[in-house]
Amino acid sequence: MHQPRIGILGTGAIGGFYGLMLAKAAQEVHFLLRSDYEQVAKHGLRVNSVTQGQLQLSPPIYRDAADMPPCDWIFIATKTTSNPDLVPAILKVAAPEAKIVLMQNGLGVEDALRPLLPGNLHLLGGLCFICAHRGEQGIIEHEAMGGINLAYHSGPASDPAQQLAIAQQAANWFKSAGLDANAMQDLATARWQKLVWNAPYNGLSVVLNSGTEALMQHPDTLALIQDIMQEVTGAARACGHPLPEDLVGKMLKNTQRMSDYLPSMYHDFALKRPMELEAIYERALQQAHQVGFAMPKTQMLLHSLKFLEQRSLSH
């Protein structure tokens, strides 16, 4: 049996970090790059990590997905807003019965992509718990954490045990690289759990132009963070995905221990890129509305973000 070949589509902070960690663990990893191609071709791809130290490799890189070899596993680390446009690249890179893993935030991202993929491809979700950002071209700054939860969504594997085994294979790779990785049976619950952190911190960082440290230090914003977290956990429960009772408290404590962090939505807004409002807010609000659960503070945050995005992108 040949060693699985891994493709990374979206070599930013997330794809670059996890891709290099897999390469460090002796996996065969191929990277699709855009703007960073020339820099990485000359100097390699580098991660400056608080926990892992400095890691620098010169892996196989490509400008065009058509030039990549067929990959058995494809990790997608682009923004959810680009998923439909990414389908041609996925189809060019995917080996027969390849496993596609969406390392993205939000709800329903697999549901939206599934109809665009052929039935022979497996689709999984990868929930990344990490603080990282892209610094200079070809350089990733990893500030904290790095765990990942993986779960099967859809595809040729219909037996739950087989689905879990597929997710476990990827989790084992990440574990061999020294990362906390878990295979989970229920993808929807895992996505709601990740949303508990993403919903308050991503949006508030944009609306209030602040990182996590400032948001946690002020009593009013801390109370607002907690309220939005409780709305998300309540919505998850109402939608049939109960989360651990102590989840909010643990997330608040973990964030207080982190160094100051600007979430990905802050960077998207600062760079005048579309924000992931549908995946992180709109789908959660829609699902909650369908079961009669109100999320007024989350709804107000979304309204504010839509206003800011429209004004930013129109100038």
Please provide a written account of the structure.
GO terms for molecular function: 2-dehydropantoate 2-reductase activity. It catalyses: (R)-pantoate + NADP(+) = 2-dehydropantoate + NADPH + H(+). Residues 187-308 form the Ketopantoate reductase C-terminal domain. Keywords: NADP, Oxidoreductase, Pantothenate biosynthesis. Pathway: Cofactor biosynthesis; (R)-pantothenate biosynthesis; (R)-pantoate from 3-methyl-2-oxobutanoate: step 2/2. The structure is a single chain. The protein has 315 residues and is of the alpha/beta class. The protein folds into two domains: 5-185, NAD(P)-binding Rossmann-like Domain (Rossmann fold); 189-313, N-(1-d-carboxylethyl)-l-norvaline Dehydrogenase, domain 2, CATH 1.10.1040. Helix content is 47%, strand content 22%. It is built from twelve helices and ten strands. Strands 1, 2, 3, 4, 5, 6, 7, 8, 9 and 10 form a ten-stranded mixed β-sheet that branches. Strand 3 and strand 4 (53-57) form a beta hairpin. It starts with a strand and ends with a helix.
Keywords:
single chain, 315 residues, alpha/beta, Rossmann fold, N-(1-d-carboxylethyl)-l-norvaline Dehydrogenase, domain 2, ten-stranded mixed β-sheet, 47% helix, 22% strand, globular
By CATH, the topology of the largest domain is Rossmann fold
Q: What is the element string, with H for helices and E for strands?
A: EHEHEEEEHEHEEHEHHHHHHH
Spatial gap, N to C terminus:
55 Å
Over all CA atoms, what is the radius of gyration? 19 Å
Count of distinct structural domains:
2
**Total DSSP E strands:** 10
The level 1 CATH classification of the largest domain is Alpha Beta
Largest sheet geometry: 10 strands, mixed
> What shape does the CA trace take?
globular
Q: Kindly report the average pLDDT value.
A: 95
Beta-strand percent range: 15-25%
Number of helices: 12
**Could you name the ranges where pLDDT drops below 50 across 5 or more consecutive residues?**
none
Question: What is the CATH-assigned architecture of the largest domain?
Answer: 3-Layer(aba) Sandwich
**Category from helices, strands and their pairing:** alpha/beta
| Share in helix | 40-55%
The named CATH superfamily of the largest domain:
NAD(P)-binding Rossmann-like Domain
